[in-house]
Amino acid sequence: MTTITIPTLTTQRLTLRGFTAADLDALVPIYADPQVSRYIGDGTPADRATTWRALAGMLGHWQLRGYGMWALIERATGRLIGRAGLYNPEGWPGLEAGWLLARDRWGRGFATEAGRTILAYAFTQLGADHVISVIHPANAASIRVAERLGEHLEREIDLKGQRVLVYGINRHRWQQGQQEQTGSST
Predict the structure, then answer these.
(1) What is the pLDDT of residue 186?
(2) What are phi and psi of 53, to 5 degrees?
(3) pLDDT tens digits, residue range 107-137?
């Protein structure tokens, strides 16, 4: 079996790197926080065993799809503060850019910073034409992040028994946003 090498990406304040088994201890309290987990899956906080399975699933996603979730490391502290990346398991409505942060790191722009890097990776490295974010309708903070990334509400769907919003952006609209940010006119 071929093992995929997960690329490491850096932003001004974050390092996005592949997860390792050693990350479990830092991930457990994040996944166990009821405020963090309320809009993820069925909204139930995860115990250690469930978090381990999530970690294994994130690593397996890289192996099966060639992309996936990265561990978010705050560069100033070296602390694992969450996860962000690309997700598209069997039966999912499309290639998703997703993020999840420790509660004490909310409201600091980390999700938007990671999201910009994830979209750039999807469009430039993977050649994606369209990326979505699946968001619980009550998750106003994630909706704001998606909108800051240039995503627009595309539809509302039923996913695993829950109504969710699907925000999305296509390559053309993303490229226009990149040109606006850099001030180029090509």
Answers:
(1) 47
(2) -65, -40
(3) 999 999 999 999 999 999 999 999 999 999 9
Query: CA–CA separation, 16 vs 182, rounded Å?
Result: 23
Taking CA 166 as the corner, what is the angle to CA 92 and CA 61, rounded to the nearest 5 degrees? 30
β 162-170/130-135 pair status: antiparallel
Burial 94-103 (b: 16+ CB within 10 A, else e): ebbbbbbbbe
In the beta sheet, which residues pair with residue 152? 168
pTM of the model: 0.93
Residues of the chain with pLDDT under 50: 185-186
- Reduced to 3 states (helix: H, G, I; strand: E, B; else coil), residue 161 is coil
| 90, two tokens | 């069997």
Distance, CA of 7 to CA of 5 (rounded, Å): 6
What pLDDT shows up at residue 184?
58
Q: What is the sign of the dihedral through the CA atoms of 125, 131, 136 and 142?
A: positive
